[in-house]
Design brief:
With 219 residues, the protein is of the alpha/beta class. The protein has a single domain, classed as Rossmann fold, CATH 3.40.50. It is built from six helices and seven strands; from the N terminus they run E-E-H-E-E-H-H-E-H-E-H-E-H. The longest helix is centred in the last third of the chain and has 14 residues.
């Protein structure tokens, strides 16, 4: 049974966490180097063309963008937040912005009971880099379940994809390259499989402190 998005709304851009005004719901965050295709993937997952802004200029996303989304499957609904984190390696961004990237990520990952999974995006045509490993290390430190997703697979031939996925899995120290999700925002390959993973995450029970969850600057 296919999973489809029935609602998708931009809620807030924050530079510090927790952001104000968000109801307590499960969060799935999306991480990746600039120009990895993060905005295009978000738009594909919610079947919208312009929910997340795409750009040819790396580093356009310089804050934490939050989208409220609801999905339907076989008559059931599940909802939560997609959290679009700033891309790393964004050479076009000012140095002052680049210096704030790690503290911003740490502030988001640390003590965040709503965050139930992180989607880390990797370009099939590129080797995993320093930013990828640094992000994965932070996610491991805070024991956040992580799903490695390889983007832009339509950019390489079908005969070459298996070898490229094995190369990326090896670089990440993964035993089985089949654990990678391979997707294309252009032709839809792998989108339903990834939605299936997200559907399961959105079904995770959410237990958060009753006080203090909305405190702190945001927006």
């Amino acid at each position: 049974m296919a999973i489809r998005c029935v609602e998708a709304t931009f809620r807030v851009t924050a530079t510090r966490w927790p952001a104000k005004g968000l109801e307590p719901m499960v969060e799935v965050c999306f991480c990746g180097r600039s120009n990895v295709g993060k905005s295009s993937l978000l738009n594909s997952l919610v079947n919208r063309r312009t929910l997340a802004r795409t750009s040819n200029t790396p580093g356009r996303t310089q804050g934490i963008n939050v989208f409220e989304v609801k999905f339907a499957k076989a008559g059931n609904n599940r909802q939560g937040y997609f959290v679009d984190l700033p891309g790393y390696g964004f050479a076009a961004a000012p140095e002052s912005v680049r210096r704030k990237w790690r503290p911003m990520m740490l502030g988001y990952f640390r003590d965040n009971p709503r965050l139930k999974a992180a989607v880390v995006l990797l370009d099939i045509r590129r080797e995993p880099g320093e930013g990828d490993f640094e992000t994965l290390e932070m996610l491991e430190e805070f024991e956040i379940p992580t799903l490695a997703v390889v983007t832009k697979i339509d950019k390489v031939s079908k005969g070459k994809r298996g070898g490229d996925l094995k190369r990326i899995a090896s670089a990440l120290g993964m035993d089985d390259w089949h654990d990678l999700r391979a997707v294309s925002s252009q032709d839809g390959t792998g989108i339903q499989d990834l939605l299936g993973d997200i559907w399961e995450v959105f079904g995770t029970p959410l237990t958060i402190p009753t006080q203090g969850t909305e405190e702190g600057p945001g927006g």
